[in-house]
């Protein structure tokens, strides 16, 4: 028993050290906490254990969490949550699991735990919902669950999630009553002593919640979320009709309303089920046309970017659906291209949809139209890196002769700080499509970039290309010309080190030179680089006697947690574990 308790206490030590180190608790307080939790832990390992012992332990941990929250607020320190709060929460869960393993029937105690937690954290809607669900599912008490939801709404009167779950709870309660009534009727039991209110069983309480919720929270998205919940239950047709009427009367200026009404047409009943593939495809085509008619009606009164986005998204989703009927597939593609073109002509096509448009056009083989759309996209979103990247990708794929000029245009319009993806794409294109002289000139232009991320990436690509295009000598020449041209990435040096090691007879003197240059840039933070250098000296071409000096220099230069990592890894290296 003592060994287990000691192990659990030792597991706390990093967390307690953090509390003291960051100033949330004093040394004296940490000692007091250690003493207290030791006593609590021993109580859980006695021969006779009570539920009160577990609850007291959980309550103590909750109190510690609350105290930490107050201390953080007072001193303004918000870091190290993973090492402190997360470990405490994990421990609370562990204690709770230990308790529920020992006592399967812990429903009353669970209610007390939730009550304690809600008293401390009433600002957390999720906690109220968990407590209410526990009352409904574990204790079979819809009244208690309803009471908790009403209390939750006093703290969170405009919480969508609380209202959604309250609405769901009332429908679940109605469904349960309906099942009970049905079972009693089937068993031919006299239902006189049972109360089955027709209003409750038809979902009238849920409708009350709906009215209250929509009176406080506006928006088609919220009403639709409640409608989605209601649609799960097979006795809510009247309630669903009420919600849909509200949606149509109050939110015709919201694209989500039209989107919902249009998609309803897909599920509309149209008579007998058709057996042949062509018959089903024809029926689907008619349904989709009716959806489009609703979207068109919506556009007549709501010609907005959001409305077009809904329409395009619908057409795109239908186009992506697999079908073996070629006529339906062609009809969907024709419809999608037409809607995309109209949205573009209205200057209301979202940036994201140009990618889909170009993909459809590329699959259709219409190179001229594809190029035109790519260029049109860049004219509409001249400062968007994503649009330029997409357009350039398309032009590269088409093999356009205007690609080089388009790259130059792109780099003049976008924010230089965001231009890295365009440089990367241009380098890849140049290496496969242009002459070595043109590629070299591109690299030289890239080196002049004032954006560090671009400059570093260009150096890496330039070195790698030099080795592939001109071998070791050219790579070494490129490295020498750039090794003083800051800023650098670590990859620039490690690539040169790897190039040297790839040679038939790599020179250790060159490797040392490359490592030393890299350490001048990254020696204070990169413990892995020091370890790689030491491994190199321990290799067949190195001098093991140099390792001590390298270790001494690393310990002198490394800072913060890098020192601890280096020390641990170096010890493992010395003992042969890595």
The class by helix and strand makeup works out as mainly alpha
Radius of gyration: 34 Å
Q: How can the largest sheet be summarized?
A: none
Mean pLDDT: 88
Q: Judging from the principal axes of the Cα atoms, what is the shape?
A: flat
Note the beta-strand portion: under 5%
Organism: Salmo trutta
Protein name: UTP6 small subunit processome component
GO molecular function, one term: snoRNA binding
Keywords: Nucleus, Repeat, rRNA processing
What would the keywords be for this entry?
single chain; mainly alpha; snoRNA binding; UTP6_C; nucleus; TPR-like_helical_dom_sf
Fold and architecture overview:
With 578 residues, the chain is mainly alpha-helical. Among the domains are: 1-104; 121-187 and 198-251; 415-487; 488-575. It is 75% helix and 0% strand. It contains 28 helices and no strands. It has helices at 2-21, 27-43, 51-75, 85-102, 107-120, 125-137, 142-155, 160-186, 198-201, 204-216, 220-230, 237-250, 255-264, 277-301, 305-320, 326-345, 353-364, 367-380, 385-398, 403-413, 420-433, 436-447, 452-482, 490-501, 508-522, 527-538, 547-557, 561-574. Helix 3 (51-75) packs parallel to helix 5 (107-120). The mean pLDDT is 88. Keywords: Nucleus, Repeat, rRNA processing. GO terms for molecular function: snoRNA binding. InterPro entries: HAT (IPR003107), TPR-like_helical_dom_sf (IPR011990), Utp6 (IPR013949), UTP6_C (IPR056907), UTP6_N (IPR055347). Residues 289-558 form the U3 small nucleolar RNA-associated protein 6 homolog C-terminal domain.
